[in-house]
Design goal:
- The chain has 335 residues and is α/β, with parallel strands linked by helices.
- The protein has one domain: Bacterial extracellular solute-binding protein, family 7 (D-Maltodextrin-Binding Protein, domain 2).
- Strands 1, 2, 3, 4, 5, 6, 7, 8, 9 and 10 form a ten-stranded mixed sheet that branches.
- Helix 2 links the parallel strand 1 and strand 2.
- The chain is globular, with a radius of gyration of 22 Å.
- The structure holds (2S)-2-hydroxy-2-methyl-3-oxobutanoic acid (X2X).
- The site of (2S)-2-hydroxy-2-methyl-3-oxobutanoic acid (X2X) has 12 residues, from helix 4.
- One of its GO terms (cellular component) is outer membrane-bounded periplasmic space.
- Belongs to the bacterial solute-binding protein 7 family.
Length: 335
């Protein structure tokens, strides 16, 4: 009897000690996005899911929940939900995660990145690594970059080609308070709301304008809610980050971690190329629908840069002076 008990205890101890190496995988991993499959953003997530399914021969199943529905539409809560493991994975915008990861405000600094090469110089260089380290420190494992795109300003009232045109305009923004500061510096009246609330607010005229990449303007048919003026000022671009809650990440075998990461890198590259390649055609489509598209001369552009300098002074210390400098150098030295 005693012997048996000893054996049982030993067996139990043994079981406890055996590392739960790679726990049973979940039947399904949730992937959060804001924009669904009709948009490049949703397509980036679709591609990731598809590549992982294919390369794991169906062992790893991911299911996309768009419109930030896992956080009841409040996209600025997505990061916290992933960190706590309520959401397993996400393809998210740096804007939406910036309230929790201050370093992500880097990409929102007005006019930091003049072109696509500048975005790549940051994301693919040392600054990009530092940003990923900052995400990792907060309990989320970043795997790869994607792209929502350069954000352009639309409104229902007037052609905007100088800061004074924004005077008193109600502009919908999302993300950290940095956006309030940018639009306040320009004399506008910014108001924060989720994507879910944005279109209704534009429809009723509760706000006069918004800012989003032209792919979003096009697919969401923002022109149909009275947004007939679009200024291509490219004041910032929001990269997308493919990421996994670190709690969930640890449950995957090293081989599967590598598989998930490589699939995210491949999906991100594919989506970035595709969305950039579609830009001209999308812009032409928007013009055809009667939207007045304004391009800025170098002088007009400079006036917006000057008017938003205070945002750097206030936000560089919060983002990290060194990171901002690293990013500025990467942009200056881009090929
Ligand atoms: O809400 C937006 O403007 C959107 C869809 O672009 C983001 O999620 C940042």
């Amino acid at each position: 009897m005693l012997k048996r008990r000893t054996f049982m205890a030993a067996a139990a101890a043994c079981m406890l000690m055996t590392p739960v190496a790679h726990a049973e995988y979940k039947a399904e991993y949730t992937v959060s996005t804001v924009l669904p499959s009709a948009f490049p953003w949703g397509q980036a997530a679709d591609k990731w899911v598809e590549l992982v399914k294919e390369r794991s021969a169906g062992r790893i199943n991911m299911k996309i929940y768009s419109n930030a529905q896992l956080v009841s539409g409040d996209q600025t809560k997505e990061f916290s939900a992933m960190r706590s493991g309520l959401i397993d994975m996400a393809v998210g915008s740096t804007i939406n995660w910036s309230p929790q990861v201050s370093e992500l405000n880097l990409f929102s600094l007005p006019f930091l990145m003049p072109d696509h090469t500048a975005i790549d110089a940051i994301t693919q260089g040392e600054a990009g690594k530092a940003v990923f380290a900052a995400i990792e420190k907060r309990g989320v494992t970043p795997l790869a970059w994607g792209e929502n795109g350069f954000r352009q300003l639309s409104n229902s009232k007037l052609k905007i080609d100088k800061p004074a045109d924004l005077e008193g305009l109600k502009i919908r923004v999302v993300g950290s308070p940095l956006f309030q500061d940018t639009f306040t510096a320009l004399g506008a009246n910014p108001t924060q709301m989720s994507w879910a609330d944005a279109k209704p607010a534009l429809t009723t005229g509760a706000v006069d304008g918004q800012e989003n990449p032209i792919s979003v303007f096009d697919v969401a048919r923002i022109d149909q809610v009275g947004q007939t003026h679009l200024t291509r000022w490219g004041y910032m671009a929001d990269p997308l980050v493919f990421a996994v809650s670190t709690r969930v990440w640890r449950q995957f075998s090293p081989e599967d971690q590598q598989l998930l990461k490589q699939a995210a890198i491949d999906a991100g590259k594919w989506e970035i190329e595709k969305s950039r390649a579609e830009l001209d055609a999308t812009l032409a489509k928007i013009k055809e629908r009667g939207v007045e598209v304004t391009e800025l001369t170098p002088e007009q552009h400079a006036a917006f840069v000057d008017a938003t300098q205070s945002v750097y002074e206030k936000w560089a210390p919060r983002i990290g002076e060194e990171l901002v400098k690293q990013a500025q150098d990467a942009v200056a030295n881009r090929k």
